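W.,

You were right to be curious about this one. When I first looked at the sequence I had no strong expectations either way, so I just let the prediction run and decided to look at it fresh. Below is the sequence, 291 residues in total, followed by the output.
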Amino acid sequence: MQPKRLSVLGVGLLGGSIGLAAKARLTQCRVLGYAHRAETLQSALARGAIDEGYDDPRRAVQNADLVVLCTPVGMLGDLLDQIAPALAPGAIVTDVGSTKRSVVAHGRRAMAGSPARFVGSHPMAGSEKRGVQYAQADLFEGATCVLTPDESTDPDALSAVETFWRELGMTTLRMTPAEHDRRVAEISHLPHALAAALVAMQEGESLSLAGKGFADATRIAAGDGGLWRDIFLDNQDNLRDSLARLRASLDEMLGCLDAEKADQLKAWLDAAAGKREAWGKSTAREGKGRV
C-alpha cells in the first residue's frame, strides 16, 4: 500500500519513525500527525516526521487513506471512538499496540458503523526511549510486524496493511489476537517485568558496582511506567502465566545450587546458553539487528 495521505496519531518514537520512514520510502505520501501537546507537533514538524500537525485527531484523519494509531494501549479505545465518524470511505485504520485482543475487539466495534476498516498490527521495533527526538527512519528495517486479523477483518485491508509495513522494511506474519498476546507476553512483557524487578530489588551499595552486564539486562526497565502499566493490565492473564513459568525455571535453578549438584547446574546453564546462541545465530542470519 502506498498511501497518498497517511495519518499518524501520536508522533512519539514509533509515530515519528513511521513518518520519517514513509517520507523516505513512499513516493507522493503526505504525512499528517496528531499530538495533544503543541511542542510535540512542533518537534515532529522540525524533524520532518510530518508535513501537517493537528491537536484534534478528527481533523488529522480527514481524507486519509491510512491511519496508524501510535498512542499507548490505554488510549486506543477512546481514540478509535473519536475518529470513526471522521474517516473517509475506504480508509484503513491500523495500530502499533503491544496487546491485540482488546484493541482488535474495540476496532471491530468502532468501525461497525463507519465506512472505514480496521486491521490490528504490532511492529516489533522500538526502544526504551520516548519522544519524536529519538525517531529513526530505519527503525523498522529488518524487524517483524505481526498482523492480527479476526473473523471480521477485511482481506483487502489486511493485505494493504501488510504491504505498508513491508514498504517500511519489515517482514510480516499473521496470527490471531489471542496467540499474539500469549506469545508476546513471554518475549516482550515478561522481560520488561523481569528487568524492572531486577532494578527494584537492588540496594544502593550494589548498584554502585553495576557494570555492562547489569546495564544490558535492565536497559528496558527505563521505559515509561504508565505505558507498561496499561500493557501489563491488558494482558494480565498471559503475563501471570509467563511469570509462573519463570518462577518454575528459577526454582529449578535453585534446586541445583548445591555442590553435589554441580554437574546438574552446569547442564542447566549450558542448555540456556545453547538456546540463546542458536537464537542469536538465527536472528543474525535474518538480519534483525542486535542480538
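Here's what jumped out at me. The chain has a mean pLDDT of 94. And, maybe more interesting for your project: The longest helix spans residues 177-200.

Coffee later to discuss?

I.
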